[in-house]
């Protein structure tokens, strides 16, 4: 289930003599904590295939063990979703939209409104879709909610007439007809598949939400609560949990995970009746989580942190970087033999 906000993976390609270097050790310094470009902003998965976004799009065919760059980008993407293993969409800064029809082998990208930051995208089976986010002005003091509609599968987009301050963070459908647009602005609700939208009563300050069927869903964000609905979003019940959370992932009606600040990972095995607070072993903010089954999962976030569990989150190990993230590597040099080298 999509949920994850939410890896910017720093990829160092060493050619020539550098290929001979087999191991590296840190001689001086520590990873930076303040670099905003080395971060993962969202992850999604279809089976063992995983896609991650940040300032680019990355792909793993083996549940995160190895990665390749599918697209570099000057702009940061904030959200990625795949409708199946081939049809994927990503949205982000400066109104950027990226689309693939072949699992990410090639991506087409364009901007629909450079004054906007797009936070999420969703499609219906009839070719209609929505992007949500915020419209920003140069003074950074007049953000307003932004929603645009497509009726031709994403070829063209038309903004909806909204006059709400703040921004939207997500859009979710419980079924073919019942959906929600939510975030910092007044939430919107549709019961006719998006033909009309009215003001709704979605949990405030929600960053991410998901439904596993037409009645059962969850939402969370900056309110220190994880909310659950059992009636398709008509009513919500909140469970107080210490933390601010940016992504969630549900395998089914029982197993779910939520991640957020300070490396927190919160898990349920009973459909949200009880939540267990845990830690991924990093102090970095986590913005993405995916699980392929109840035991195997990935979390990632700021600092380029990417960690994996093989026991349902009881323990985590690094895939890249270290507990505090990746350093920014600027230069590499080797001695005459090509075996001893340094990066800084």
Give a verbal description of the structure.
The chain has 344 residues and is mainly β. It has no helices and 30 strands. A hairpin with a 5-residue loop joins strand 5 (77-82) and strand 6. It is globular and about 70 Å long. Mean pLDDT is 85; it is low at 3-22 and 25-37.
Segments where pLDDT lies below 50 for 5+ residues?
A: 3-22, 25-37
| Overall residue-averaged pLDDT value | 85
The total of beta strands comes to 30
**Termini separation (Å)?**
39 Å
Pattern of helices and strands: EEEEEEEEEEEEEEEEEEEEEEEEEEEEEE
Net shape: globular
The proportion of residues in beta strands is: 35-45%
Strand order of the largest sheet: 1-2-3-4
Helix % is under 10%
The multimeric state of the shown protein is: single chain
Labels describing this entry:
30 strands, disordered N terminus, mainly beta, 344 residues
Explain the layout of strands and helices.
Blueprint: E1 42-46, E2 49-54, E3 56-60, E4 68-72, E5 77-82, E6 88-92, E7 96-100, E8 108-111, E9 116-123, E10 129-135, E11 144-150, E12 158-159, E13 168-173, E14 179-183, E15 188-190, E16 198-199, E17 206-211, E18 217-221, E19 225-229, E20 237-240, E21 245-250, E22 256-260, E23 264-268, E24 276-279, E25 286-291, E26 297-301, E27 306-309, E28 317-320, E29 332-334, E30 341-343
Antiparallel strand pairs: 1-2, 2-3, 3-4, 5-6, 6-7, 7-8, 9-10, 10-11, 11-12, 13-14, 14-15, 15-16, 17-18, 18-19, 19-20, 21-22, 22-23, 23-24, 25-26, 26-27, 27-28, 29-30
Give a quick summary of the entry.
The chain has 344 residues and is mainly β.
């Amino acid at each position: 289930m999509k949920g994850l906000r939410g890896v910017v993976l720093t990829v160092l390609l060493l050619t020539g003599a550098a290929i001979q270097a087999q191991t590296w050790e840190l001689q001086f310094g520590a990873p930076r904590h303040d670099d905003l470009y080395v971060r993962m902003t969202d992850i999604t998965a279809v089976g063992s295939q995983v896609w991650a976004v940040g300032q680019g799009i990355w792909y793993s065919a083996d549940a995160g063990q190895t990665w390749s760059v599918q697209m570099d980008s000057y702009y940061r993407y904030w959200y990625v979703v795949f409708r199946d293993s081939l049809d994927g969409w990503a949205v982000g800064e400066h109104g950027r939209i990226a689309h693939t029809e072949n699992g990410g082998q090639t991506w087409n990208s364009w901007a629909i409104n450079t004054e906007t930051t797009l936070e999420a995208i969703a499609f219906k089976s009839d070719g209609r879709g929505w992007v949500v986010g915020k419209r920003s002005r140069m003074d950074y003091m007049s953000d307003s909610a932004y929603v645009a509609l497509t009726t031709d599968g994403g070829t063209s987009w038309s903004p909806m007439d909204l006059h709400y301050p703040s921004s939207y963070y997500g859009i979710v459908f419980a079924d073919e007809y019942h959906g929600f647009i939510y975030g910092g602005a007044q939430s919107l609700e549709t019961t006719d598949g998006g033909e009309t939208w009215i003001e709704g009563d979605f949990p405030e300050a929600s960053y991410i939400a998901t439904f596993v069927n037409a009645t059962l869903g969850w939402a969370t964000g900056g309110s220190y609560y994880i909310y659950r609905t059992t009636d398709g979003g008509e009513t919500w019940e909140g469970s107080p949990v210490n933390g601010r959370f940016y992504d969630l992932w549900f395998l089914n009606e029982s197993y779910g995970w939520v991640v957020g600040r300070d490396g927190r990972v919160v898990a349920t095995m009973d459909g949200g009746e009880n939540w267990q607070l845990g830690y991924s072993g990093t102090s970095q903010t986590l913005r993405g989580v995916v699980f392929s089954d109840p035991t195997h999962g990935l979390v990632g976030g700021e600092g380029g942190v990417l960690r994996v569990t093989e026991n349902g989150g009881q323990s985590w190990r690094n895939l890249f970087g270290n507990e505090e993230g990746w350093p920014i590597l600027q230069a590499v040099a080797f001695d005459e033999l090509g075996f001893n080298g340094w990066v800084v």
